[in-house]
Structures are given as structure tokens and as C-alpha cells.
Amino acid sequence: MKKRDHLSSRLGFIMLSAGCAIGCGNVWKFPWMCGQNGGGSFILLYILCLLILGIPVMVMELSVGRAAQTSPLYMYQKLSDHKQWGFLGKICFLGNLGLMAFYTVVTGWIIYYFVQFLCGNQATLSFGAMTQDPYINVFYLFVTVLFAFFILSFQLQKGLEKVTKYMMSALIILMLILALHSFVLSGAKEGLQFYLVPRLEDIHISTIVNAMNQAFFTLSVGMGGMAIFGSYIDKQHSLLGESLHIIVLDTFVAIVAGLIIFPACYTYNVEVSAGPSLLFDTMTTVFTHMHQGRLWGTLFFLFMIFAAFSTVLGVCENILAMVREKTGWHRPKGCIVCGISVFICALTTALGFNVIHFQPFAMGTTFLDFWDFMISNLIMPLGSLALVIFCSWKIGWGWDAFIQEANTGKGLRFPKWMQFVCRFVLPCVIVFIFVNGMLHFSWR
């Protein structure tokens, strides 16, 4: 690529970065994590962990991207005299590709549910039946990948940035409409009380650990997801303020998602700790029994499409940028090759429930569990650990270079006293999260 793309506005940067961070992790995983960990108590711990852990790592990744002005494939080796850091760029590429290997399939499921509600077929919906049908899985996967790379084939400002602005605006409007509707349901008081009121008796060690996990990984750091957008901006604003804008929008979406779901669950006596099935089976049951449920179900899954696609577009842009910098291809050619590659990788997940019989871990696990483990349990925590060390110690980029880049521009300054936290506390927390995840993972 002869000239690096840049975003046209600060709003575009914030919307893109927040959209990449939001995704299904906020509007799907966050509510059921709240349901399983005491509701309001979990939210309190989550926000505290986000402030202590999430902000520093977000600032670090944005700083590396903006200073390097290149994709994650080359950013580490460009900023460090120690060229062995270059291997992290390859890990970032594999991590993003692995994430899309299952995330595009989940996005396809959401599109399928939206279409069924739109057509009035919600009464016959079954998550199990859907995953067992290879034609449904592959077709909606194809739709997801085709739409994503079609948008990315246009210039950055006219394609990804423009579409994301409209999509994120629509997402927020839809969320507020759905939340207001939930407030008038008969079980709203009980649902909101469970969701928003902290109870000390619900706080356990496992609650703290889960809050740390969710706060750390909701921001999509560790694989260059934020760094790529940092490389698309100028140096007019310091990066602590930009990080706060992204995190506030990310947290707002997560909390409003719970405002939509929990009043509905309490109204229709549906289990609030249902886990991953909360989005599909549980919410379908809710809308099936709700007055004008077809309308509200259609709006709900449309909102979910916007949330999921915001991440798909952000991650696919990252993959595309890395491939283009490696090959020098223009956007359309890069999109064709990257789209085919993502589709082939994702076929493992799409066919893993029905055609490909691969059981990587405990009974009933599939390729989706394999890819999720590789990303959530290995690449993201280890990539985040490497990022923190890279920015905090002289063996990488170093603290002085990081703090200078982070504080360039007008706005809030990243405090220098955080050096101890970044050098010692953050690495220990990340190692703890990683080890805890390994120890409590259901291997068999």
C-alpha cells in the first residue's frame, strides 16, 4: 500500500473502536454472566475491574498502533530494537482469523433468527435444529462474509467508517426502544432490582474472577483489534480520553442489553442464568409469549445483527490490513482473498455441529469450542501479557516511549505513577486469569 488510510473524523474512530469491542460479548455474554454471578454485584465488580485493568491496556494498544502507523503484523518489530517481537504480529493475524472462524457463524445464526421472526416463523424456531442443518449454517455464514467484505472493498472512509456510523447509531436507538419497552413489563421491577442492586452476599471469589475476565476481554485487546484503528488516527488527542470514550460506549451497550433482557425474563418466568442459550432459546420463548412478540423479536435480533456485525467488520478490516501490507494488494483483491480464506476457516464451525465430527474437549464440544478456547483462553490473554510487557519494559518499546505517545495531543494525560501498576500488577493479573482459565477449563 502506497499511502496509509486514515479515518475522516474522531467520531468515526470512536464508533469503529467501540463497535469492534462491543459485539456479542456485550449484548449476549454480559447479561448471562450477570445472571450467573448475582446481577448487580457482578456489575459493580465489572466496572471497578474495567477502570483498573481495562483502561491501561486499551491505552497501550492504541498507542502502539498510532505510533507504528502500520497493521499489527508489523507494529511490534517497527517500534522495538529487538526484532524477535515480530512473531507477535503473526500471532495477531492467526488470532483474528481464528476469531472469525466461529464469530461469523454465530453472526449467521443471528441473521437466521432475525429472518424467521420477520417472516413470522418464530414459533417453530429451535437452536438445536438450526445447528444440525448444514445448509442453514453454511448459507448464513456465506451471507455474513459476503456482506462484510463487500463493505470493506470500498475506501476506508466511504465504506467501513460510513457504514459503522449509521449501524452504531441504529444500534443505540434500537436498544433504547427495546429497553423502554422492557420497563413497562409486569416483571420489570423484580428484574431491574436483581440486575442493578448489588448484594454483598452474592460476591464470591468466582464472581470477582469472572468480573475480571469479562472486563479484560470485552475490549478486544491482545490481538491488535484496537491497534489497527489507532493506526488510522492523527495525534490531535491524547489516548486516555479516547480510551474512556470507547469504554463508556462499550459499557453503556452492555448494561442496556441487560435492561432489555432481565425485565423480560422475570415477566415470563424464564431462567436468567441460562448461559449461552439465553440469546436464542430463552429470548425466543420470551418473545413467543409476549404481546406483539413478532415485532419485538424482530427488532431485538436486528439490534443483535448490528452488534455482531460491528465486530465482524472491525476484525475483518484488521485481517485485510495485515494481508494488504504483506502483499501490496488493493482493497478489492484483498477482500476477495481474505473473504474466501475466512469462509473456508469458518466452515469448520458451520459444519462442526452436523458433518464434521470433531470433539476437541469434553463430550459434546465442537470446532466452535476449539476456536473459542484458542482465542479466549490462549491468544487473547498471552497477547495482552506480551502487549503490557512490550509497553512497560525496555526489552520491548519501553515505558518512556509509550507514555510519550499516549500523552501526545490535547486531553487527559495517562498518569506516570501507573508505571508500577502496568509493570507488575497488570502482568500478574493477566497470568492469574490465564492460569485460572486453564485450571477450570472442562478438558474432558
Ends apart, CA distance between termini = 47 Å
Shape: globular
Mean pLDDT equals 91
Instruction: Pick out the low-confidence regions.
Output: none
Strand-residue fraction?
under 5%
Radius of gyration: 21 Å
Largest sheet: none
Structural class: mainly alpha
- Order of helix and strand elements from N to C terminus: HHHHHHHHHHHHHHHHH
- Helix share, percent: over 70%
**How many helical stretches?**
17
The total strand number stands at 0
Spell out the blueprint of helices and strands:
Blueprint lengths: L9 H27 L3 H29 L3 H8 L7 H32 L8 H5 L2 H19 L4 H27 L4 H9 L8 H13 L9 H4 L8 H29 L13 H9 L3 H35 L3 H20 L16 H26 L6 H8 L12 H21 L5
Helix pairs in contact: 1-7, 1-11, 1-13, 2-3, 2-9, 2-11, 2-15, 3-4, 4-6, 4-13, 4-14, 4-15, 6-13, 6-14, 7-11, 7-13, 8-11, 12-13, 13-14, 15-17
Key descriptive features of the protein:
0% strand, mainly alpha, 72% helix, 444 residues, single chain, 17 helices
Question: What would you note in describing this structure?
Answer:
It is a single chain. This protein is mainly α and 444 residues long. It is 72% helix and 0% strand. It contains 17 helices and no strands. The chain is globular, with a radius of gyration of 21 Å. The termini are far apart. The model has no long low-confidence stretch (mean pLDDT 91).
